[in-house]
Design goal:
single chain; 711 residues; alpha/beta; 7-stranded mixed beta sheet; two-stranded antiparallel sheet; 27 helices
Length: 711
Amino acid sequence: MGEWRTGTRNVSAVYVVLALGGMGGALWFAHHFQLGAAATAASLLPTLAPLFMSWVTFRTGAERQAELPLDQIAEHLAQAVQSQWEAEARVRRVNDPYPMAVGWRAAPEDLVEEWSLLRTTAADWPGGPRTAPGEWAASPEQLEGTGAEITLTFAEKVPTNRLLVLGEPGAGKTVLLLRLLLGLLQRRMASTATDAVAAVPVLFPLATWNPTRQDLYAWMSQRLAADYPNLAESAPARFGKIDRARALLDNRLILPVLDGFDEIASPLRSAALSAINEALPFGHPVVLSSRVGEYRNVVRPRSGFPVRLAGAAGIELRPLEVADALAYLRRDAGGSGYAADRWEQVADRLDTETPVGAALRTPLMLFLARTIYNPRAGESHEDLPYPGELCDTSRFPTRAAVETHLFSAFIPAAYRSHPRHPSRWSPQQAQMTFVFLARHLYLAFNGTPDLSWWQLPRATRRSIPVLVTQGICLFFGTLFAAFSLAFVVWARANILVMILAPLVGAVLGVFLGFLLAMPGWLAFDTELRRPTSGLRWAPNWLWLVTGAAAALFLMTVAHWSFPLAGMVGLSIFITFGLGTRAADTALEVGPMTLWSRDRRTFWALTLAVTATASLGIWVPVVVNGGFVVGQIIALAFALWIGLTVAFTKTAWGAFASVQYHLALRRSLPRNLMAFLADAHQYRGVLRQVGAVYQFRHIDLQRHLASTSDGD
C-alpha cells in the first residue's frame, strides 16, 4: 500500500511539473513574440492534458487505496494495536521486575448469567458453537486462574466469548485486559495462516462515551478513527459510503474490549449497558470491565429495571496475596540487602486490617509505593523516605489516608533525580503542570481521561485568532518601534523626537498587525482541527473558476498582459488547491508522531502556499517595476496568506499559540510535548492509548484535579 501511494505521488508530480513547465514556456513565448490573448490561450491548451492526468492519477491512487480489502485493513490494524500495547507494556513496567501475579475467581452469581444457560445458548447458535464444547468450563469455579491464563479463559473456557471482569479500584483490571489483548493478538497471528480472519481486539476506554448522545457503534467508529487515523478513510465501495472503522465494526472484525464501565456517569450506566447489549448481541464477543459496586448497582438497582451484560460469564479479581505483595516490593528493591529490608516494618502489617495492610493490596498502590520508597538502579536509598512511615496510624488513620498520601507523594518521587534519565523539570513544575492538565480535562471535557494535544486550545478562554493577533501586533509593534528609533538616531534628531518616534512607530506597527490579522478571523471556526500528516493535491474546480475569473478581470479591466493575468489566476488555483491528508498509523501511532507530522505539515503548507501566492503577488510587482519596499510588502502578504491557510488546515498552529500563551502564564512548560513524552516514557505518570495520553489511573487524575494550588 505504501509503495502504491509513493508511486502515485511520483507519477502525479511528474505530470504537474510538465504542466507548469509547459505553461511557463507558453507564457514566455506569448510575451516574447507579443501574441494576442486568443493565440496565447491556444498555446496553453496542450498544458491542460498533464494537469488533467495529474488529477486523474491522484484520484486513481485514492480509489485503489480505498479498495484495499477489508481483511488487509484488519491486518494492518492488528499490527498497529500489537505494536502500541507491547510498547505500552514496556513503559508501564508490567514485566519489571516480573509480571505481578494477579489472580481471579468466578464473579458473584447474582451479577452474571446462569452457567447452564450460557452453555445451552452457545451450543444452539446458528452454525454451531464457536469453540469446542469439550473445552468449556464445566462450572463457573473452573474459570479461576492467574496471569496469562486470562487468554485461555476467555477464548476457550467461556462458551459465549463474552466476559465481565470485575475488581476493586486499582486491582489491576486494565493491566489484565492488556495481557488479554496481547494474548488474543498472538492467537490471531498463529491462526490466520489457515483460518478465516479473526476479529482484532481493541481497547475502548468507556469514560469518553455518552450513551444518550451516541450509539455504541458510532462512538467506537469515532474512537477508532481518532486513535488510528487511517481508519477514517473511505471503506471499499462495496460497503457503501462509510469509513473503514465502521466497515470493520459492521463486519464483526473488531472485538471490543470495553474498559472502565464504572467511569461512565452514574445516571447513564443503565442506559449504557442496555446500549451495549443492543449493539453487541449474543454471538458477538465482548469484554467489559468495571468496579464491583458500580456494576452491582446497575444489576440490582434500588429502583428501575435491572440490566446485566447479556450472555456473559464473569470473573472477579482477587486481592494480592500478602506474600506476593511483599516479595514484589522486596524484589523491586534488589531482593536482598538494606534497601529490601526497609520493608520489614510494613511486612508485619500486610496481613492485618491496619490502614497500610488494607491499602497495599492492589497493584496500583504497590506501584505507587515502590516508586516512592524503592531506589532505582544507581540511586542510594539513604535520600529516600522510609516506608515504615506508612505504619504511623496517627498520621494515616485510615486506608483512604494512606492512599491519598501515596497519590500525593507519587509525582515528586517520579521527578526526583534519575541516574539514567535526569528530568528537565523540577517536581514542583511537574506537579503544577499535572494539576493544570487534570483540571483542564474536567472543566473542558467533563472528566474525560483522554489528554489530546490538539484539544489544548480549550484550556484557555481566549480564542486562537485573539492569541495570533496579539502575537502579530507585538511583532510589528516592536519592529516598527526599533526601526523608528534607529532612523531618528541616524538622523541625529533631538531628544524629544527620539522619545516620541518609537512610541509612534509602535502604535503604527500594532495598527498594521491588527489590519493584517483581522481578515484571518474569518478563516477560523470553533471546531478543533484534527492532526494531519502531509500535503495532498486536492484541486477544487471552484478555485479554478475563481482564478480564471480573476485573470479575465485583470486583462479586461486592469489591462494587464495575458501572461501576468494568467499567472495570477494559476496562482489562485494552485494556492487553494493544496490540502492536507490524515496520518497513516497502520504501523506507527502515538501523540508525538502525530504532533511531529502535523508540525511539518504546517510549515510545508506555509512555504508551499507562500511560494504559489508569490506568483500572483510578488512576480507582478517585480515585472511592473515595483520598488524594493513594494516587493517586501508583496512577499509579506504572500507569507500572511501561507500562515493563514496553514492555521486553518492543521492543528499545530492553534496548539502552539495556546501553548506559548499558557507558558507565559507559567501554567505549562514551554515544550509541553517533550514534557508529556518524558512523563510517559520515564516517569510512569502517563500512559498512551492510541493517539492520546491518559493519566496512569483515573483515580490519580481525580486526585490531581482536586488538589489545591498550595499543595
